[in-house]
Amino acid sequence: MRIRIVDAFTDRPFSGNPAGVLLLDSFPEDSWLRNVAAEVNLSETAFAHPLPAGGEADWALRWFTPATEVDMCGHATLATAHVLHTTGAATGTIRFATRSGVLSATAAADGTITMDFPTSALTPLPVPEGLAKALGAEVVAVHDTSAHIGDLVVELRDEATVRSLTPDLAALVSLSSRGIIVTATAENPDGGYDFVSRGFFPAIGIEEDPVTGSAHTALAPYWSARFGRDELTGFQGGLRTGLVRTHLRGERTLLTGHAVTVIDGDLHA
């Protein structure tokens, strides 16, 4: 069985966010999917199989961390679309049936792929007790996305604070159902991106996710309101980094990025 490792939201190997991708005839038992994801040991592994023609979606898609199945994953969706396009298994716009509804991905001539995801609603919150201490940084504002992706979006003072952050991951577990997204405006407005972020997800077995596509369904409306523009570019990451272009369209958010296959091999299990 073929398995591929794809670096998403980057156009060069060893950067962006890596995801495992397996194309199947059908979904095996959940225990097998969990075991494969644990063996691959990346933040997410995607499993997809084709659906009968004529339906509302072309492929069924599921995502697993090494610890659990998740409802949405942007970078592994991008990675799956990249594999389908580069192998010729699909062309044009691909519609995925997922736990978050039908999500689409469209390849462009420049090699980018644009995904159409639901926009996450943001609810302002008082700063939760213990959050600033767990992050080790002053908190400017907090917004909740529990109705959608389940993250807290936490604005920090500046880009340097986001980049240098070393949070207490154990303390973060009780503060969000999924993860903590820290963000700030870009220090250099001419640096090729508008805002920065990092994502910590210890509650679902991921200490830090390098480039979190789904988080940008919340970051896009957050920063679009601030900048007064619908199209923005986000830079995310600690040791590994990547760029996500966002286009806010009301209840939908378009996420655009590159992807590159770095490993193409066989799974003997």
List the helices and strands and how they pair.
Layout (H helix, E strand, L loop, with lengths): L1 E7 L8 E7 L6 H11 L3 E7 L8 E6 L4 E2 L3 H14 L5 E6 L2 E7 L5 E6 L4 E3 L5 H5 L3 E6 L6 E6 L2 H6 L4 H4 L6 E7 L9 E7 L4 E4 L6 H12 L3 E7 L3 E9 L2 E6 L1 E8 L3
Parallel strand pairs: 2-3, 4-6, 11-12, 13-15
Antiparallel strand pairs: 1-2, 1-18, 3-4, 4-5, 6-7, 7-8, 8-17, 9-10, 10-11, 12-13, 13-14, 15-16, 16-17
- Name the CATH architecture of the largest domain: Roll
Task: Provide the CATH topology of the largest domain.
Answer: Diaminopimelate Epimerase, Chain A, domain 1
Q: Superfamily at the CATH H level of the largest domain?
A: Diaminopimelate Epimerase, Chain A, domain 1
Number of domains: 2
What fraction, in percent, of the residue positions are helical? 10-25%
Task: Please describe the biggest sheet, giving its number of strands, its sense, and whether it closes into a barrel.
Answer: 18 strands, mixed
Tell me the radius of gyration: 18 Å
> What percentage of the residues does DSSP assign to strands (E)?
35-45%
Please tally the helical runs, counting DSSP H or I stretches of 4 or more residues: 6
CATH class of the largest domain: Alpha Beta
Stretches where pLDDT is under 50 for at least 5 consecutive residues are none
